[in-house]
Specification:
- There is one protein chain.
- Helix 1 crosses helix 3 (about 30-35).
- The chain is globular.
- Strand 5 (about 140-145) and strand 6 (about 150-155) form a beta hairpin.
- With about 180 residues, the chain is α/β, with parallel strands linked by helices.
- It has helices spanning about 5-15, 25, 30-35, 40, 95-105, 105-110, 130-135, 160-165, 170-180; strands at about 55-60, 65-70, 80-85, 115-120, 140-145, 150-155.
- It has nine helices and six strands; from the N terminus they run H-H-H-H-E-E-E-H-H-E-H-E-E-H-H.
- The longest helix is centred in the middle third of the chain and has 12 residues, at about 95-105.
- Strands 1-2-4-3-5-6 form a six-stranded mixed beta sheet.
Length: about 180
């Protein structure tokens, strides 16, 4: 059984209405009757809760994951993701704020390079990453997919600089060749 296109499109339009708006407010009665939509289906139920992201993990719209290091095992990312560790003694550190602002502005570039950003802004956290890197104040570190610490910096870096560093890694060069074989 196939449905006519028009009622299907109207049903999709009704489903896309903002939460406070009803189908009867926008569509003529014949369209509502034709699609079989009811006022109840157009308005969301107050009891329905939207799923919230994990407190540990915040995903930006570009897809870049920014994770707190307190409950994180860096070994879980081996061979899948590169870690960009951004560490400071306090979240109010101007270098930390500047670095995170730059990361958020160019998140898509980092996501294309399979980067996950891990932050730690508590010098007493005792996270596995903090124990491994042992930062003093602000520190930025890049850990490649093989788990090797490729670079450490005591000051913020522009994302373009970070991309250039990552693009020189042997694993990244191999990935680029596999993704775009004609570019050899």
């Amino acid at each position: 059984m196939t449905l006519p296109i028009k009622p299907v499109l109207l049903a999709l339009a009704i489903a896309a209405l903002p939460s406070g708006m009803l189908a009867a407010d926008v569509l003529p009665e014949t369209a509502v009757a034709q699609t079989g939509a009811t006022v109840e289906s157009a308005a969301p139920l107050a009891d329905e809760a939207l799923p919230l992201p994990d407190e540990e993990e915040v995903v930006t719209p570009e897809g870049l994951r920014i994770i707190d290091a307190t409950e994180l095992d860096p070994e879980a990312f081996l061979w899948e993701w590169r870690i960009l560790a951004v560490m400071a003694d306090t979240p109010n550190d101007p270098a930390f704020i500047r670095q995170m602002r730059d990361i958020n502005e160019r998140a898509r570039d980092l996501f294309e390079r399979d980067v996950v950003v891990v932050t730690d802004t508590d010098r007493n956290s005792g996270s596995a990453l903090r124990q491994r890197l042992r930062p003093r104040g602000f520190m930025l570190a890049i850990i490649d997919k093989d788990g090797e610490i490729k670079q450490r910096r005591p000051a913020p870096r522009d994302v373009r600089e970070l991309n250039a560093v990552i693009d020189r890694f042997p694993l990244r060069r191999q990935e680029m060749m596999e993704r775009r074989p004609a570019g050899r």
